[in-house]
Amino acid sequence: MQVNFFMWICASLPILAILILMVGFKWSASKAGPTGFFVALAVAVLVFKANFHLLANSNAKGFVMAFYVLYIVWGALLLYNVVDITGGIESIGATFMAMTKNKILQLLMIGFAFVTFLQGVAGFGVPVAVGAPLLIGMGFDPVSAVAVALIGHAWAVTFGDMAASFASLQQATGLSAADLAPWCGLFIALAGIFCGMFAVHAYGGTKALRQGIVPTLVVSLSMSISLWFITQWEPTLATFLSGIIGMVVTAVLSRVKIYNTKAAIEASASTGRLTSNPVTVKGKVVEKKMPFNLAFAPYYSLIIIVLFVKFVPGVEDWLKHLLVLKLKFGEYSTGLGWVTPAGSSTSVGIFSHAGAFLFYASFIGILIYRAKGIWKAGMFKKLLSKVVKGGVNSSIATTSMVLMAFIMVESGMTYMLAKGVADALGSIYPIFIPLVGVLGAFMTGSNTNSNVMFGAFQVQVANILGISTLISAAAQTAGGSIGSMLAPSKVIVGTSTVGLTGREGEVIGKTLKYCVTLALILGIVAWVMLFILCRHVY
Prior knowledge:
Blueprint: H1 5-24, H2 29-46, H3 52-85, H4 88-97, H5 103-121, H6 126-137, H7 142-154, H8 160-173, H9 177-211, H10 213-231, H11 238-253, H12 262-270, E1 280-281, E2 284-285, H13 292-295, H14 297-311, H15 315-320, E3 324-325, E4 328-329, E5 332-333, E6 339-340, E7 343-344, E8 348-349, H16 354-371, H17 379-410, H18 413-425, H19 433-444, H20 447-465, H21 469-482, H22 488-497, H23 504-533
Antiparallel strand pairs: 1-2, 3-8, 4-7, 5-6
Helix pairs in contact: 1-2, 1-18, 2-17, 3-8, 3-16, 3-17, 5-6, 5-7, 5-8, 5-9, 5-10, 5-11, 6-7, 6-22, 7-9, 7-22, 7-23, 8-20, 9-10, 9-21, 9-23, 10-11, 14-16, 17-20, 18-20, 19-20, 19-21, 19-23, 20-21, 21-23
């Protein structure tokens, strides 16, 4: 299929439609996504000569992939809300808030480690919605608090929600999870080191960073290095466990005498903007309603479940084959001769999927809370309401964008876009890979959707340029991850929970410089790896 300007413009129309509707007209992803899907459908039929057989098959594959991702999304929402409605999240936050009076350590504990942990178990703006009010309650300036929570959680998005974004990247690109995970982990770990420093800088500038550089590096390095190692063992737990490790390391540092002297506490407070707000979350005084270990019990359950499945011989294989959703397809092509080879859809093990582990942990958590008298009558109804409210819009957005992406790939539209970009930019293109990921996250509010939209595109460009698809895909999701700090939906969540409605532009202005700077750093790293250090990697 020959590339020409007219067809390249037509191929870009679905993405342009989403960009214009979300950025220009402020539409939500759940409204813009279906529109992008129908634009892709029309272009595929009218310009790229896709037939009914191709459309039916690509949509069937898309629905299975959407289910693969949303299984995790709904499970994560369920587990988080089981803990939240009992007061568990508040109790966990109160525990950390009581550990130290050093403002930089408080910031690292809540605005970096704790929000990373929350991203590991929930996502969807939850780290910002919970983390920002906690920071304000500890006396941090509201704008800084929202910015810190946005920056602090962004690096960890790819492997958050039990690695939902990583799953979407893997499925969109067709790359092996085992091959892809270490490279994604490497880029995300590098981003984590910078996000830790940027979070402190957002609070108090160079002065605060200089004052807290040692604990900042200790915490960020411990979290980043642990994440990289965990991705090579079990990607679904990488963000979750690295957040826990960060909280433990910060808790240890909070007991170090040099950080708790009167001079150190005063110095940490003098570096940034603070308020005298009472300790509140969403207008309520933060209370430790239950012991930490009880509040954390569902997450302990999740860890135990994963370890049991992974390390007890035969369990994982039995679960994988118990009930599997997988569809097979023959070869088909467009009227222009673009061929999709025979193959199968994403394979979803209903009982072995990461989403299933989240559901298991949720039910165990309910049983534990019920046994302790914490789970009250009426909570189950409240739980279902919160889960449905949180999951419907994201499900519509994700499904429509997955379907759009499959139509674009299998009609030849993605190849047309990739070939045009590769021909225009050539060897300098890798510098811009993370910025494309940032754009996707900004447009859709989700790294998952950014990977769905641009994952296949990045692989196509890499193949055309003769560079590593693994490194290109990793740079894509790293960009999409840090782009979360600019996502309008998350910014709005943060500002609305702390009473800053209408000041979203101020928050974005504060995070924009960090996001763009880090994206360019990651892009330069990608270029060096692709053309100098790792030219042998496929």
